[in-house]
Amino acid sequence: MKDMPESERPYEKCFQQGPSYLSDAELLAVLLRTGSIGESALDLARRILYDPEASPDTGLQRISCGSMKMWMHLKGVGPVKAAQILCLAELAKRLTRSAKGSRVTFSAPGLIADHYMESMRHLSQETVKAVFLDSKARKMGECDISKGTVSSSLISPREVFMEAVRHDAVFLVLLHNHPSGDPTPSQEDINITERLEYTGKMLGIPLLDHIVIGDRCYFSFQEHGLLVRMAEEQTGV
Questions:
Q1: Domain membership flag for residue 81
Q2: What are the strands, taking DSSP E only, across 63-190?
């Protein structure tokens, strides 16, 4: 980038005008710091964001869904730069969650889905997450229950509700993603929901909802009338 006019170099633009004046590629170039053989950090950043060989997605959307293997397949990106890109994506997700606050109120399925959409819709394997709420449907905590294939044999109601008790939860919400992008629940999803709903009623910690995350879409068992309305009546959700 030394051959570029000083006013067009990402660092100088940031110093003089502020980061909001930098393009997506320029911001990424600043974070990468160096390019590869024969190309500047800015040229490499542009390829990372827009090279059609890397991914059908373009721009920042590509950053959020890339994998270590995908990035290292791109010429000029080694393990260090691949790690930088992955860490950037993870930091962006955490900043988004932090800005929303850990005590966010989940008063509707859409709010829950929106809160977890970006962190879950790009996952390459199914991940089941339990979210624990207080009496006003405010988030008290969360934990991952399983990763891989969603199966009733891998999800133990005992473990789920032990975590719920540990968090002093009043209500429970279950989420998992479908890497295919289609949130339509499988029969296994329905079976798991029924088991957790039954156990929750017995223990006095109702399952408020089970939300399946797809690609920019979701399926809520509560919205589709597939859960008992007891939790709804108690919270007004």
A1: yes
A2: 126-133, 139-148, 171-177
In a domain, 1, yes or no: no
The string of DSSP letters for 177-228 reads E-TTS--PPPHHHHHHHHHHHHHHHHHT--EEEEEEE-SS-EEETTTTT-S-
Beta bridge partners of 130: 143, 174
Return the amino acid letter for 37.
I
pLDDT of 3 over the 80 cut:
no
- In 3D space, the residue among 207, 226, 231 whose CA is nearest the CA of residue 155 turns out to be 207
Query: DSSP secondary structure string, 25-39?
Result: HHHHHHHH---BTTB
The Cα–Cα gap between 23 and 99 comes to 23
Locus of tokens 């209500």: 171
DSSP summary character for residue 231: H
* pLDDT single digits (tens) 218-234: 999 999 998 864 444 45
Interstrand relation of 218-220 and 207-213 (parallel, antiparallel or unpaired): antiparallel
| Structure-block tokens of residue 211 | 């939300």
173 and 63 share one domain: no
